[in-house]
Design goal:
81 residues, mainly alpha, 3 helices, 77% helix, 0% strand, elongated
């Protein structure tokens, strides 16, 4: 294992990790797993941005709702709807 690790420039522990993770997979299964992991990596930042946008909008709406409840005559729009 040491020679193989040196040949590919990785540590022996990495080889053991890969063997445990991918040891029972056939080539098409490993390629599919890799494609799914790549897709997941592209989607995660998009989800994080959408979640932040959603949280910001909810915060804005809750602040506006609080101001509306505090006004005596109800909500008053400050601009076009």
């Amino acid at each position: 294992m040491a020679d193989l690790a040196r040949k590919h420039g990785v540590s022996e522990s990495t080889l053991y990790y890969w063997k445990a993770k991918y040891g029972g997979l056939e080539v098409p299964e490993a390629k599919r797993l890799r494609a799914l992991e790549d897709e997941n990596g592209r989607i995660k930042p998009l989800l994080a941005d959408a979640t932040l946008d959603n949280a910001g909008l909810n915060d804005l709406l809750s602040k506006k709702g609080t101001a509306c409840h505090q006004a005596e005559s109800g909500c008053v729009s400050s601009g076009p709807a």
